[in-house]
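Subject: sequence -> structure tokens, single chain

Hey, anyone have a minute? Need the predicted structure for the following. Not urgent.
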Amino acid sequence: MGQIIHLLCKENLNLENNGLLWLIGSSLMPFVVVSILHCIHFQSNSGVPNYAAEAEDLRIVLPKGLEVVGAILIREMDGSDIVNKAGDYAVEMIRILLPNIQECLRVIAAKFVRGTLGVQYFLYTQHGSPSIEVPDDVVYEVKPLEYLWKNMCLMHSKMLLKVPLYSPSFKNSSDYEAVLSRAVNIILSDLRSPRLHCYIEGSTKHPEYNLPILLKPFVLGKVNDSSTIIGVGGSSPPSTLQCSEFCSFDILNSTVGAQVPTPVKVTLMLNQSVRNGQPAAPCAKFLPSPGDTALTVLRLSLDVLCMGPGKLYLNEAVQDLVIPALSEQLLALKSLVRNSAAEKPKICSYHFHPPGILHPISSIYDTSYGELELGLVEVRKMLHRRLGLPLNQPFLRIANSLDFTIKSDPTCHSTDNLRLCDVHIGLQSSGLIGGRPSLIQGSYEYYHYLQDSWDDKGWGCAYRSLQTIVSWFRLQNYTAVEVPSHRKIQEILVGIGDKEASFIGSQEWIGAIELSFVLDTLLGVTCKILNVRSGLELPEKCRELSFHFETQGTPVMIGGGVLAYTLLGVDYNESTGESSFLILDPHYIGPDDLKTIHSGGWCGWKKAVSNKGEFFLHNMFYNLLLPQRPTTV
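Reply:
Had a minute. Here:
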């Protein structure tokens, strides 16, 4: 009898050439495909996967508990061996990832031949002579997110380690590697020690057990032993507690709008007051050295996600998912530390929830030389290719990472809840007949005079416009850099040699050129600058400004004389040449009240010349700063 294959995702088949896709799921949820990832490492030009390189990547990217359950081969021409190859590739990949598996494997093998209607799915068993079966049905789930989190539980564990490395000398790499390996092996041993305690926090379904749970001691094999689980508040929960009892149905909104549930938190602790099963005081070890000894303290941050079926027992989840995940990440960090050129490498794991992927994914970044360092950019590019993401938009920068300590408020885009966001929303139209509005894309924060208890009235309008622009790049997740203060802006300009040291702490104006220098230095953002000799010539730039807002979507700074404004859009009638400008005015000094800002015209549509007079002065020279959206990951 056949089986039903459940697909929780759509196939991404936009490959220029023949390709291979891994089907991702869980062996504990047979024939359910949770996501589809691209194979990106191959053995030369043979089309055969480089299994070792793929396994190394997938162990980092996937939450522990998700694994390869099949493969799709994409070919230009049909052939009798395509399904067999897909099945063989999947089986071999699984045996590399899960070397302890001995039983016969049954996987999903699929093929897509260009020019045909779609993917054809089969069930493949590699036992003696391979067998291929046609499933009873292939179902694309209508509510994949609900299906996934109804059946799976998300777990999160984090450890901060200070690893002391002692050696008479670190003169050569072999000395350092030997000492590092010994230290890592001790930690790996501790992760399997009976002295290990696991503090489990979550939102249980039963009010009487709505307390943190302590697994003690962590004795392997005693899954249902009542002595291993106690309630921290004095209650005694049943030893058969499953992960589903701790799973929260609260939803965390990620930075890109996808949703993941609040994970069960697993904190590991090592009991230092027990030795050989008996109570004992902690002790210090004295290890005499024959000569001078160097000490290096290595700081490692382990941060893992795991996904398991809700029916999994707590002990099983810790033993089979959390501990192996931490152990594998520790070994990965060891390898990266060993190969890092930095004296004190900053290597951390980050979790992301990019569009098109139902579950979180992870990556390890070495940020020793900054997030825009070429090697790290290449790491993100490879991950974009694996996930089928575009290469001209950032989805996997640190600013995109999930923060499981703070619940996001989906109604507020602001990085500072005290500052107004997207204040142009709710305004009436410009009133221009036959015009085509072109507006800013995405969210921004409104910066204006006197905010942050800083009196910049009369000189700080360009600084405030720059802060609004930087907030746009933050809220679009292009950067995690903080919005700079006036002093920080001045320090940057002095640091690059544009201003004298006396500029710091002054009340001197800045213009479009200075803003471009700061954006380049702070964010690596390039800018175009438009010049007009008179405010009356600004409408002539509306076609170019419309193109900017439609293709780049960033806020524009307009500077003329001693005044600066932030431009959020234009409304332009190409036939008549009439135009209107959506202005965000940084000269506002009132409270952050949206109604007051709208009624006072501090954010609103302005014409270059109207019956109220000239908004842009005819005798003033203007520069327009057009920040360019980065076209990189």
